Amino acid sequence: MTTEFTLRRLHSDIVATQVWLRNKYGPAFRMIVIDRHYSCAPDEIAYVVVYAADDNAPLRREMRAHATRILEARGWRLNPQPGRDVRDFEESDRWLSNHERLEILGQVEEWLKNK
């Protein structure tokens, strides 16, 4: 079940993950979409989908691995269940100021260091 708290947490973590990936990969990174099963536990996600500027599969896999690591550091568990319906979650990070981006980058680095 997706509660209001889970939604806020998920959207915040998507933004933070995108900021980190955009900082590392620049224009090659486009966005991530998180898929959750309709009846998953509050801390579960089904899939992490990464969109990149070109069709470079190895680069997308590398980006997805980083995104997954960040999300796991935040307490999310991957639990893909093929064949079950999912709901997509995405969030824009374009509205952030440079100061907010720097603050988020520091937070993500702390999450990764403490994992």
Could you give a short description of this structure?
The chain has 115 residues and is an alpha+beta fold. It has helices at residues 4-25, 57-73, 98-114, and strands at residues 29-37, 44-45, 47-52, 77-78, 86-89.
Name the average pLDDT: 94
* H/E element order: HEEEHEEH
The count of strands amounts to 5
Roughly what fraction of the amino acids lie in strands? 15-25%
Instruction: Give the end-to-end Cα distance, rounded to a whole number of Å.
Output: 26 Å
Spatial strand order of the main sheet: 3-1-5
Indicate how many domains the architecture comprises.
Answer: 1
- The tally of helices reads 3
Profile the largest sheet: 3 strands, antiparallel
CA-based shape:
globular
Radius of gyration over alpha carbons? Answer: 14 Å
Secondary-structure-based class equals alpha+beta
Low-confidence regions: none
Determine the fraction of residues in helical runs and give it as a percent range. Answer: 40-55%
